[in-house]
Design brief:
This protein is mainly alpha-helical. It contains four helices and no strands. The longest helix is centred in the C-terminal third of the chain and has 34 residues. The two termini are about 30 Å apart.
């Protein structure tokens, strides 16, 4: 089942406004489909620099730990298997932390916490 995101129509001379939820949905779609932000921006008519700004503002910019190298030989030694297992455990722990962090942000957003209101941050313009 695919989620269809309702993106405001691109019209000359009009600035489109995106809610925080729409921004998260757009960035999540790119991550879910393993799509580059450049192709996503072209498809929706959104500047790539804006997508990268959203990614940074919303905390999507943290890179996961590198994946372990896969052994070339199918007869991997026990040490190689254990090393791969530790690397996978580290990645699962990182993903779990990111998931908790995102859940906390969604909860804060839904509760109306001021941390998500750009007008309450000094030096920032509201979008």
């Amino acid at each position: 089942m695919t989620n269809i995101i309702d993106i405001p129509e691109l019209r000359p001379g009009r600035r489109r406004r995106f809610s925080r939820v729409e921004k998260v949905e757009i960035l999540t779609e790119a991550a879910r489909q393993n799509e580059t932000l450049s192709s996503l921006g072209r498809r929706y008519g959104i500047a790539v620099s804006l997508l990268f700004r959203w990614k940074k503002e919303l905390g999507f910019d943290v890179a996961p730990p590198p994946l372990p190298e896969t052994p070339q030989d199918n007869r991997a030694s026990l040490e190689d298997v254990l090393r791969s297992m530790r690397a996978l455990e580290a990645e699962v722990n990182w993903l779990s932390r990111q998931n908790r962090r995102l859940q906390e942000r969604v909860t804060q957003f839904e509760s109306g916490t001021s941390a998500f209101r750009p007008d309450n941050q000094p030096g920032r313009q509201s979008i």
